[in-house]
Amino acid sequence: MSDLKQPGRESALSIEKDSQINVVVNRPDEDDVIDLMRVFHNMKITRRVYAWVILLCLVVGVCIPLLLYQFKDADSRVASVVTLDYDVVLRVDTLGEPVYGPVADLSAPDGTELDLSQITSAYVLQNAVASLELSEAVSLTNIRSNIHVEKILTEDSRRQQEVASRMLADKNAGAYTQLQSVKLTYINQFVVSLDNGFGTEDGDKVYLPDDELRVLLDRVLASYNDYLATTYANYKLPGDAISIIDTDNLDIMESLDLLRSAVDELYDYCDDQTDAVKEYRSYRDGRSLNDLMATLQTAREVNVEYLYSHVYANSIAKDRAEMLSQYRYLLREAQTKLNVVNENIKSTEEILKSYQYDSISVENQESDSSKTTKITTDYYNNLVLQQAENYNEAASLEISIDDLNTKIANLQTNTSVIDTIQAKNELTKAISVCSSIYQSICEQMEEIIDAPFYTTYADATAAQGQAQPSFLSANVKKMILGALAGAVLGCGLWFGAAFIAEMKRGKSTKTEEEVQA
């Protein structure tokens, strides 16, 4: 191939001069091209009009979720945080007297674990719906299935549970042992929630308005509060041990012994109440329980103790021989009990002296260090408590024995005959005075139990994030999504209108050129 230029080929390339190759691939007609700059120019011209269109789309997007919320029977929930508010026995002091304080966990007033399942019991629910008119008929079974109770863990228990859960997630070998050793404790609060939508899953559900749902939950909690107040002994009226004294069949000294015990029990019942209860003043006469206790103390000193001293010193009795026989029988019984208690004291003292395992060593592994703690065993503690009870019982029996010996000696030495009619009249008067004070105390306690402040719970409107949301907060996410959708729709209409205007302009230009041609 010596010559690049072949004969008969005029278009052959020549290396002696510059050459240019132009390639055109599917070149469209100029009228079919959409100029985006002109589209944006059209959008700029109509910006004021479509600003109002976008605003209208935003408003519509916000309003549509609210309208759907109004016409849709969506499941709702109301809830309340229940706070226990009563005193329980915290400990027993050195004298054996109970020390009361505010409840800090889910303990009942008698010290046992509070039974929260009673919230959904038939007794509580029947009292809750009694005389309550609802817009729809709802059965107790449906109410029970829609009530949920949630306990609230203490901070330490929650932390321990989280640690055990992380160990279980990491497949730690000691995770199950850790879970078994975790003892969950709860604070004195729990959450009670009530779901709307009563009925079976397959059938049609009945929905109550939000205000009726809240009223129903409040009535359930109030009924449970009444259940607590009427179940535990701390909230019951004192027993009537005064009016049952039979002065006709009992001797004067026996009747006085019963009267003294009844007055002491009544005073102790009042003294065991909280300060708020004792300081509450009645709307009937303005008196408080402290005033009634002062009146009872005066009656005990003037009417009971004075008469008892007179009868005791003069050995006044309707039948001396019968009283001597009865006192001697009580004396033998008390001495027998004292001998048994002394034997228990002796044996327990020997066990305590010979008991060598009064403490054990426990190693607690914390991080990289371990420490040993001395913990007194429960068996040793029980022995100490039992010994203290033995000493208290022995002291009480010794006092009773001395009192019986004195009564027997007085009946044997004092042979003067004293008319018992006046003493019996004084006894009747003392019983009447004490019985009247007992009735006043019962009326005061009945008024206190029915008072608004005398409650065992305090409900709040917010329930640990589970309370019924407000109208706006229930739809805030849908409103935001609706606003975004409205803004997108408005911008799309704005761009589409400008795009269509540009397309129409191109078609009209092409038509004019064809007509001119």
Keywords:
56% helix, two-stranded antiparallel sheet, 14 helices, single chain, mainly alpha, 517 residues
Shape by Cα distribution: elongated
Strand arrangement, major sheet: 1-5-4
Name the helicity range.
55-70%
Name the average pLDDT. Answer: 77
Number-wise, the strands total 7
**Biggest β-sheet description:** 3 strands, antiparallel
CA-based gyration radius: 45 Å
Task: Please give a structural write-up.
This protein is mainly alpha-helical and 517 residues long. 56% of the residues lie in helices and 10% in strands. It is built from 14 helices and 7 strands. It has helices spanning 36-45, 47-71, 122-129, 140-146, 155-169, 175-181, 210-231, 252-271, 275-279, 289-314, 320-354, 378-413, 420-450, 476-516, and strands at residues 77-83, 87-92, 98-102, 147-153, 186-195, 359-366, 369-376. It has a 3-stranded antiparallel sheet. It has a two-stranded antiparallel sheet with strand order 2-3. It has a two-stranded antiparallel ribbon with strand order 6-7. Helix 5 packs antiparallel against helix 6 and helix 11 (320-354) packs antiparallel against helix 12 (378-413). The protein is elongated, with a radius of gyration of 45 Å. The model is unreliable at 1-5, 360-374 and 461-468 (pLDDT under 50).
Helices and strands in order:
Blueprint: H1 36-45, H2 47-71, E1 77-83, E2 87-92, E3 98-102, H3 122-129, H4 140-146, E4 147-153, H5 155-169, H6 175-181, E5 186-195, H7 210-231, H8 252-271, H9 275-279, H10 289-314, H11 320-354, E6 359-366, E7 369-376, H12 378-413, H13 420-450, H14 476-516
Antiparallel strand pairs: 1-5, 2-3, 4-5, 6-7
Helix pairs in contact: 1-14, 2-14, 3-7, 5-6, 8-10, 8-13, 10-13, 11-12
